[in-house]
Every structure is written in structure tokens, then in C-alpha cells.
Write a structure and sequence with these properties.
The complex is a heterodimer. Chain A is mainly beta. Chain A contains 1 helix and 6 strands; from the N terminus they run ββαββββ. The longest helix of chain A has 7 residues. Classes of the chains: A mainly beta, B alpha/beta.
Chain lengths: ~80, ~260
């Protein structure tokens, strides 16, 4: 099925979970937050939350930043 | 030690350092880590952004131990209350802490706060249990409203973000200090160590900076200078300065002068 992750279109297995997607992308779950269709998925639900075709997913983490600006160092 | 009895309390948590630093604009993550170490800061700001799906690249938290520092996620780059609220919710989920540095910017040229949107966002976030530290104008009315909403501190600017102009508004900061009971932390404007000392001598509870350290020729040395300036400024404030006088007062006794 086709989903959008951080603005990129991806094809992944049907009925993948958030946990499955993170594993596929080799992203540890500790220091990230995940949104599907603008709704935050709590960490406790990563294993049970099943993604649907057309879902828009955002995976965010912390980067360097001060007031008003964002670091582009090493990003 | 002297500092132990003078902790900064924010959101029910006690901190020894009154210097907060941002983690942007450094030449490398190694340099970021070294500057943080030299600054003695316990609270560091971070931004929330999309993760790079190419995992070969390193990230900030590979270099900084989040157990050692209190990460203060910011809403840098947000221009509406809704964007800022969304960012704070994501930050809480990513960091498992309620601390957020709320900023809602008015425009890209000045990076001045949009106080209307800021107040709107602060209200929602406080109701959701966040410990909100808002970057705001040097306006006592706005600061009082933020205090009434239940923010943990107010963070008025000393000058535009990244400008290095120093504390351009000492009288406005003083008016805020005299009318607000929550901590007042100057955020933005500091250029050199003396600026940080001035903010502390005014009676501010702390200073937050990024560019002044990261943009210095030697960021690690400047981080240490800022650490010392904040300590010196705080001690000077607590010690109570002499009144300013127009004319001289001799420091040596007049009595016993040779005739």
C-alpha cells in the first residue's frame, strides 16, 4: 500500500503497524514522535496502530535549535 | 556552595545554572557538546523537525546525553498558535517531558513574537498540562497575561533574536520584574558576556542565548564567559550595588592627611 512519510511517498506492506514502519526505516522509537493524519500516535500504541492506504505520516525528532531558528548543522 | 542556596525554580524543578543555551548554529555536533559543557547550562533548547529518513546521518542526541540536560523543546519557526500547539504535543511525545519553550513568531524579518497567537497557544497548552516558557515581547501587560494563564516563566527579548544588540530595554525589563512573580528570563539579544551580566544585574532569573555563543569566533570560550557572566551578574544583583552619584566620593580617609 502507498503512504506518505515526511512528505515522501512510500510503498509498504499492507496492514503494517507504526512499529513495523519504524523498524523498516531503522528508526528507534524512544526519541521520536509519530503523527498519522495529524493525530499523534502514543508510543504505547505503536505495535497495535495499523496504517491504512493513503495515510500521511510524520516522524519527528529533536534537532539543534535556539530561539527563532533551526540548526542545519549535520542535518 | 553559594549557588546551592540560590536555585532557579521552574515548573517545580530546581536548577543550579541560570544560563540556558540553544543548540543551533554550531559548526559540528562535537562543538555543540563542548560548548554546552563549558556553559554549565542544565536547560538546553532543541527544535522539533522531521527525522531524516536516511539514517546514515548523525543526529544531535547522538552527541548529547538527554539524561544530563533538561531538554527544552521549542516551537521555533511557528507562526500560528495551531502550529505551535501541534509542535508542543509532538515534543512531549518525543521527549516525555512537559517543558516547552513556546514561541509564535510574527514575521521573518523581525522574528518578534505574535503576542495574540502566543496567548492563544499558551492557554491551550497550560490547560493540557504543559510547563510553558513563552518567548514574548518586553511588555508587562503581555507578561502579566501569560502569568495569569499559568505559564511557568516569561521570556521577554532583550533585542531581536540573533542581533547581538544586548539588553536594549532595561527599563521595560525592570517594569516586568517589578510586576511579575514568576521567573523572568531574558531570551534573545545577548551578544557578549557583559550583556548577560546586565540582564542578571537587573534581577532576571536567567538568560537564554544561542547565537552569542554559537556565532562567536571561539564558541567554547564564549560559553565559559557566559557562564561566568551569569554567575557574576547574579551575585552582583544579590549583593546590592551602590547608588549612582554624579560627583566623586573619596575612598581613602581625609583624616590624618599631611598638613
Amino acid at each position: 500500500m502507498r503512504i506518505t512519510v515526511n512528505g515522501d511517498v512510500m510503498d509498504i506492506e499492507d496492514a503494517s503497524t507504526v512499529a513495523g514502519l519504524l523498524a523498516l526505516l531503522q528508526i528507534g522509537r524512544e526519541r521520536v514522535a509519530v503523527e498519522t493524519n495529524m493525530e499523534i500516535v502514543p508510543k504505547a500504541s505503536y505495535d497495535s496502530h495499523t496504517l491504512l492506504p493513503g495515510d500521511t505520516i510524520e516522524i519527528v525528532h529533536f534537532v539543534g535549535g535556539g530561539t527563532g531558528d533551526v540548526d542545519e548543522t549535520g542535518q | 556552595m553559594r549557588q546551592d542556596s540560590d536555585k532557579l525554580i521552574i515548573g517545580g524543578r530546581a536548577f543550579n545554572s541560570r544560563l540556558m543555551v540553544g543548540t543551533g548554529k554550531y559548526a559540528s555536533f562535537q562543538q555543540t557538546a563542548q560548548a554546552l559543557e563549558a556553559s554549565g547550562a542544565e536547560i538546553i533548547t532543541v527544535a522539533v523537525r522531521r527525522i531524516n529518513l536516511d539514517r546514515s546521518k548523525e543526529s544531535l542526541l547522538d552527541f548529547i546525553d538527554p539524561k544530563r540536560y533538561t531538554l527544552l523543546p521549542n516551537t521555533a519557526g511557528c507562526y500560528t498558535a495551531d502550529d505551535a500547539i501541534r509542535t508542543c504535543r509532538l515534543a512531549r511525545e518525543a521527549g516525555m517531558s512537559d517543558f516547552v519553550k513556546l514561541e509564535v513568531l510574527g514575521d521573518e524579518k523581525t522574528l518578534f513574537p505574535d503576542n495574540e497567537e502566543l496567548l492563544k497557544a499558551a492557554k491551550v497548552l497550560v490547560a493540557e498540562g504543559f510547563t510553558v516558557l513563552p518567548y514574548c515581547s518586553d511588555d508587562v501587560i503581555v507578561c502579566r497575561k501569560l502569568e495569569d494563564i499559568g505559564c511557568a516563566a516569561v521570556m521577554p527579548l532583550g533585542a531581536p533574536i540573533g542581533s547581538g544588540l544586548g539588553i536594549r530595554n532595561p527599563y521595560n525589563i525592570r517594569i516586568i520584574l517589578e510586576n511579575i512573580t514568576i521567573p523572568v528570563i531574558v531570551d534573545a539579544g545577548v551578544g557578549s558576556a557583559s550583556d548577560a551580566a546586565i540582564a542578571m544585574e537587573l534581577g532576571c532569573s536567567g538568560v537564554l542565548m544561542n547565537t552569542a555563543i554559537a556565532g562567536a569566533r571561539d564558541p567554547i570560550a564564549m560559553a565559559e564567559a557566559m557562564k561566568l557572566a551569569v554567575i557574576a551578574g547574579r551575585l552582583s544583583y544579590k549583593a546590592g550595588r551602590i547608588p549612582r552619584k554624579l560627583y566623586a566620593t573619596a575612598s581613602s580617609p581625609i583624616e590624618g592627611l599631611l598638613g
